[in-house]
Design brief:
Peptidase_M16; Cytochrome Bc1 Complex, Chain A, domain 1; 6-stranded mixed beta sheet; 23 strands; about 950 residues; alpha+beta; metalloprotease; zinc
Amino acid sequence: MHFPEKRARRLGLLLPLLLLSAAPLDARAPAPASAQTPWLYKGSDVPQDKAWTFGTLPNGIRYAVRHNGVPPEQVSIRVLVDAGSMYETDAQRGYAHLIEHLTFRESKYLKEGETIPTWQRLGATFGSDTNAETSPTQTVYKLDIPQATPAKLDETFKLLSGMVTAPIFTDHGVKTEVPIVLAELRERTSPQSRVLDQTRDLFFKGQLLAARNPIGTPETLNAANAAAVKAFHDKWYRPDNTVIVVAGDAEPAVLIARIQQWFGGWKVAGKKPAQPDFGKPVAPSGLDRKNPVGEARVLVEPDLPRIVNWAILRPWFKVNDTIDYNQGLMVDRLALALINRRLEGRARGGGSYLLASVDEMKQELSRSADATVVTVTPLGDDWKSAVTDVRSVIADALATPPSQEEIDREAAEFEVAFKVGVETQSTIAGSKAADDIVNAVDIRETVANPDTVYEIFKQSIPRFKPEAVLASTRKLFEGTVIRPMMITPKAGEATEAALRASLTEKVEAASGSRVAANSLKFADLPPVGTPGTVASARPIGLLGIEQIELSNGVKVLLWPNDAEPGRIIVKARFGGGYSAIRPQDAVYGPLGTVALMDSGIGTLGRDDLDRLATGRKLNLDFDIDDTAFRFSADTRPADLQDQLYLMAAKLATPRWDANPVLRAKAAAKLQYESYNSSPMAVLGRDLTWLLRDGDPRYATPNPVELDKATPEGFRQMWEPLLAQGPIEIDMFGDFNREQALAALEKTFGALPTRAATTPPALTPNIPAHNPEPLVLTHRGDPSQAAAVVAWPTGGGQAGVRESRQLEILAQIFNNRLFDSMREKIGASYAPQVGSSWPLDLPSGGYIAATVQLRPTDFAAFFASADEIAADLAAKPPTADEIARVTEPLKQVITRASTGNGFYMFQLEGAAYDPRKIAGIRTILNDYSQTSPERMQALAARYLTKDKSWRLQVVPEQKKP
């Protein structure tokens, strides 16, 4: 059964190299079944989610349908074929994924090359609304159809049925599509992908999962032909191996009728073949049963930080997904939460590792193993001390029961997560609901609605006792075999024997790692200041939004509404953003996005804030915009006042703990080398900075700059910036107006009046035209490269309507470049063209085309980009080309406008720039209405070769 994820503690840095989830621990006694039990719930006593209607067609197709009005008029369809890469033979490696590609190329009702344009004309964006994915265990076709009228719905099911049941395989199609798949393989190859491949190979040694990457191999793909691909399709694409899931704004009976009409006649010969044996983890003979550390592996990757992880592996068994089983999972998750909190506390206190975590894998181990995985990122090259520190924390959890106070604290965190699920269940999107069923089918479990999940949690609370948690912890660290993996940037600093020894040596239990129980309450905290009052309130003339001004000058955009029950979005904009940061202080900008919130408030450090937030839905996220700094939070009605207190207190009484700054520095230094690992990583590091005149405030700090940064310098820069500049609060969502105003008066209204400041103006521009591209290098795969061509446009709120028309032009360009670089020559898997227009700056906008390609394909890309730009400027695009862009854009805006986040994004800063209010009134028309002549005129104005700027990222030349 799926549970909502427990709220993650925000670390502000991500260095994961292994993201796996797993399957249940063991089989439990089955629940009695009745003839009326839906197919998903066979063997389970978990109450059925009555929103879903389940059934099976006479030909064996299983289906699940439900009415869901989020967003309105959309229908989300998922067709799951229970066959992925682990169903392939050695000679068929990559075929399951190749079939996914070929299905989009040509099928019964769609001629070659028609699929993507057809879905675009129906309003679906390729890649987000229209997509497919292949995993080791399944292939899923995904469609989110906007404005699903009966006619459009019928057409959708018709076309989809032809794609799944009757794709057309030809040798020409295979030979055309294989280079595209090889481009995908090439572009995904990286140090990170090599680590994942090596990790799978080690952890699942002797199992199919170890060697069945869905992308396949160049040898098997190049050898593919239509007959061989069709043989795989004929074997596994069959009604009794297919599940259709539909959730959307239509009556279930209508959806079932469409499934019956278009899939009910699908028939195949023969019996359903048996599923392959995926294998199970097996320990070599002679291992210590108490500490069965098996094969170890050390992988040298110069551009990646050190990471040590080890998996405690157990065989996977199909479970009966019962209430009792899920209550046991609750205890397991609580046990892990306790250990992870202790690990994080030790890291914050100056431990030898930057990050460490323990996870029980429950969803994505492809029915191949059940595992507990420990991951450690050492602070420096002393990886052995980091492993010992982490093992010491785990040893204490294995030796001694936790206190009831610790348990109650984690239980309170679980409870708020499940309560939020109940409170916000009416906002669950149909696409999310459909994906949940698909995932449940894949892992052979059920789904439950949020009320059921919360009820099972409450029934589990009597199990949350110290001895039960200790028993669960011990079980999580027992397994058939333990396999460790180390990634290191330096050869020779670790051996496989040393790595194995680091897990077998005795360690002392770290009793000092236990985290104090919660004793802090918001009621005990000092007030922000003397409460202010509402000085003025007026409607802005848009929906029910008001503009409030408090007596200290703080301005508020306030919109209480019931569009998303149980949810409130809050943003606090203040100060001058990047424009207020001195270029010589640039290093402290990115450090601030990580460390500023972790450095505390008043007398409270980050650990204190965590205790204070126990059982609450509170956030304190921070980022930097061009002309403002921004706190943001997603909270709920019960926690609104305390959420506002945290934000206001951060401005009133900031704390300046040194450890978060030092930790952020260490993380940034570890991460920096990874930016050389691939051409796209280089672009991620440098492109924004380069397109902003090389302004250091937009640069990624290098290790030399980071070494110069200090906690004292951090405070010296940030302390005055937190205290200056106007404040705007945007608050949209499910709250009572009067209560919200009272909370604002006590928090932001209690701040002292802030002096207005005028930061230096930011007037960025992309670099001048360069006939010869700027060349950067990467240290990744020598077959990889990347290229960018950008044309300057403009900026400023006055040009907002033109900026939206430029997005239409960019998407027309994108479709043409996609056809040229991917479909015609297979040089790039996913070329991208986009438009950027900074609304709060007078300049700095651009249209940019970005591709990954082979180093030999630069000339083809630049020639194609120049040809498309010149053609768009010379003659107008066709009406059909425009419709393929404007219809999806129209649908994206229509769907997005049903949520508060859309309006908040559009109106941020409107209290000080009312032009944004006028700008939102025309947004739908601006993105969905244009003319061929308008597109041609914009192309002629902006897409001129003598203004373009070009960049190449090439492989670094190896020294002889």
